[in-house]
Amino acid sequence: MNAVIQNMSAINASRYYNISTKDKQKSAEKLASGYRINRSSDDAAGLKISEKMRGQIRGLNRGQKNIEEGVSWLQVADGAMQELHDIVNRIRELSVQASNDTNNVEDREAINDEIKQLRAEINRISLNTEFNNQKVFDNSYVSMAVEGTPDDLQVFNASYDSAGNIVTYGGVIWQGERFEWDEISAGMVTTDASGKQVFTGGEYDWRGLHLSCKAGDEAPNITRRINISADAGGINIDGTKIKWSDVKDEHDKPFSLDNAHAGSWTVNYAGAKIAFFVGSEINNYQDMANAINSVNFGKVTYEWKTLQTGTGHEQAVNASMVKDLRISSSLADKLMPPYSLRYHVRAGDGKNGTKDGVWIQDDQGNEIAGSFKSWADLGITSWNSG
User: Fold this and answer.
1) Is residue 215 one of the residues assigned to a domain?
2) Residues 343 and 356 in one domain
3) 3 state SS of 123
4) How many other CB atoms sit within 10 Å of the CB of residue 386?
5) Which residue of 62, 76, 221, 306 has the fewest CB atoms within a 10 Å radius of its CB?
6) What is the rounded distance in angstroms from the CA atom of residue 101 to the CA atom of residue 3?
């Protein structure tokens, strides 16, 4: 006869042992992880809540690290800006130093050389400052500035009263051509009760110029749009072609295929300096042309500062309108040191003791020998002041 013999005490002991082992493993797991809930069987509802909070905590921690990295980026940018601030202050200091008349030509050249180096350093910092291999400053744009005032626009005087030092402006000299106010707009000027010429007031757009004047003004405010374009052959500024070799970088080196780079470039035009800052890399003429064409134009506002000299029968208001001035060798010899280095062109109508023609004089008012040419010599049979 077969019989099944069971040891119930051993089975219960084994079951309780397994339960204790599992509880021990859970306790060890909690101690190791530091979490009360490690699986859904521990607490299903609690696990859902804890996982949501755990995700929020990890996101906040990552956000904190992002902020710390952003602060590091700003510290790099702040350091670069501080360097730029120091450089600008040094340039201002050098500019004040250069204005001291105790400096000779060599001193001012040395000051100018240092300013050029400092300007090049400004461009280097702005172009090369990086954080994590990324540019700190946005140099993807192209900017343009006009330094000075182009001298191909002048106002000329129609009459001059030396006793009252009163000038009446007759119009403008624009790119070598002379235009009276009425040619710009009929009725632009009138005469007031005292007989003085004044503007009637208004806004006028004419040949790329914007003239603005109030009623009673004696001269208009003029804002000029300078149109700029470029191609592989050079730059066009208001129809004037300028070769690439006349475009200079911070070190006064001309633009060429061997000297093509991002940074500051300048070109002289009509007595003014037009400066470009190109942030993107430049490798050839077409790259530079594309960068300049993205700017298209700049604006400059003229401020009329007249120098009134001579009598009513001489040129009273200086106006630079001569594009090419040619003089003979004998006259050039008279203009060399130890003579004056600054000269003035004077014109008269032959009345009240003035000469009837054109001549050159120095700062002391002395006529340069051999400089006088009569109107007949120049083939001019009639003229008016200006």
Assistant:
1) yes
2) yes
3) helix
4) 24
5) 62
6) 129
pLDDT given for residue 243 in this prediction: 92
User: Do residues 168 and 251 both lie within one domain?
Assistant: yes
Query: Using only C-alpha atoms, what is the Rg of the chain?
Result: 40
Tell me how many domains the chain contains.
3
**pLDDT tier at 309, thresholds 50, 70, 90:** very low
Which own/partner contact pairs does 84-89 have at CB distance under 8 Å and 24+ positions apart? 84/122, 84/125, 84/126, 87/118, 87/121, 87/122, 88/122
* Cβ atoms of 217 and 198 closer than 8 Å: yes
Residue 313 contacts residue 349 (beta carbons within 8 Å) = yes
Q: How far is CA 131 from the centre of its chain?
A: 26
Round to whole Å and give the CA distance between 187 and 87.
52
Q: Among residues 79, 104, 137, which one ends one of the domains?
A: 137
CA distances (Å), origin 182, targets 30, 188, 199, 314, 337: 97, 6, 11, 24, 45
Please give the backbone phi and psi of residue 373, each rounded to the nearest 5 degrees, phi first. Answer: -135, 130
pLDDT in tens, 67-94: 999 999 899 999 989 999 999 999 999 9
Per-residue pLDDT of 195-253, as tens digits, reads 778 889 899 998 888 888 888 887 788 888 888 888 888 998 888 899 999 999 888 89
User: In terms of pTM, does the model score above 0.85?
Assistant: no
Residue 129 Cα distances to 29, 88, 122, 125, 142, angstroms: 50, 17, 11, 6, 18
Domain that holds residue 191: 138-306
Query: Which neighbouring-strand residues pair with 9?
Result: none
pLDDT tens string 2-45: 655 677 777 778 887 888 888 787 777 777 776 767 776 677 78
Clarify whether residues 178 and 292 are in a common domain.
Answer: yes
Q: Which amino acid is located at 250 in the chain?
A: E
Task: State the pLDDT at residue 62.
Answer: 92
Contact assessment for residue 308 and residue 167, using Cβ atoms and an 8 Å cutoff: yes
Instruction: Identify which of 362, 353, 355, 352 has the alpha carbon closest to the alpha carbon of residue 378.
Output: 355
Residue 265: is it exposed, middle or buried by C-beta count within 10 angstroms (0-12/13-18/19+)? Answer: buried
Q: Same domain for 192 and 247?
A: yes
User: Among 187, 375, 54, which Cα is nearest to 383's?
Assistant: 375
Of 91, 107, 137, the residue at which a domain comes to its end is 137
Going by C-alpha positions, the residue among 221, 218, 212, 220 that lies closest to residue 194 is: 218
